[in-house]
Amino acid sequence: MGMPMAKNLHRAGLLHSVWNRSAEKAQALGAELGVPSPASLADFARPLDAVIVCVSADADVRAVIEGMAPGLSKDSLVVDCSTVSADTARWAESFLAERGVRFLDAPVSGGVEGAQKATLAIMCGGSAETFDAAKPVLAAMGKTIEHFGPAGSGQATKATNQIMCAGIIRACAEAMAFAGAHDLPLERVVSTLGAGAGSSWYFVHRAPNMIREAYPAGFRVKLHAKDLGICRDMAARLGVHLPVVDSMLAEYAELIAQGYGDEDISATHRLKQALFKDATGKPKERS
Predict the structure, then answer these.
(1) 286 belongs to a structural domain
(2) Does 110 share its domain with 139?
(3) For the purposes of burial, counting CB atoms within 10 Å of the CB of 3, is it exposed (0-12), middle (13-18) or buried (19 or more)?
(4) Whole-number Å distance between alpha carbons of 112 and 108
(5) pLDDT by residue (tens digit) across 115-171?
(6) Same domain, 104 and 179
(7) Could you give the residue numbers annotated as active site?
(8) Which of 76, 154, 176, 261 has the smallest number of Cβ neighbours within 10 A?
(9) CATH number of residue 48's parent domain
(10) pLDDT computed for residue 1 by the predictor
(11) What is the mean pLDDT of residues 192-213?
């Protein structure tokens, strides 16, 4: 996600420098785009008015923000596009406010395709003034950009999205395995039902993976499992268990144990196909 987002910032004339925890990746991208790739986070942050962060987990966000802190100037802006907990977003806002730095949590949705096409949906939490300051930068990466409230609100909105994704991809996988077990022409199933009431982005864009039984990473199983763990914990604080989240986490645990954690979440189709194989004793022929 981060690389195509950086390239879109570059196209908009907004990219000054790049940094990555894998130095060779930052150096390669910097050389490609003609921008510096400083060795340290403090040196990276020092000349910047605004910084976009996009990493994998809560601990990574904390480490990056703490590493940048000595180089961040007063009134600069840090925008975190990672998917982490609302608590981490609130920590980041407080930590940076003590240094006179503004913060916006701005997780994104739309997959690798959305990152490449600059059509991401961006969900923001922070002050209205900080959102207004960040919006021109975010517009280089996304198409739908909304403010949902104080720090952490963007992450809570993204958690809502991740619950929806869990239910939708599971239903799509189950439906496609069902269609395959009934020897239907699967390409026509997708083209026809993709125009019907039961359609979704995931069905249109990921059911073809299921037909091919190939699941190139758009949104990795292990990353969605991480996100659903956040959703589970946020719900648990309210004394609630979410059946969709719990069941999807169980399926992802099974996929990860089988070695499929780096595949796209459409790989849950593997488990649905196995249900029919177990019932009949043999796999169905693909149409």
Answers:
(1) no
(2) yes
(3) middle
(4) 11
(5) 999 999 999 999 999 999 999 999 999 999 999 999 999 999 999 999 999 999 999
(6) no
(7) 158
(8) 261
(9) 3.40.50.720
(10) 86
(11) 97
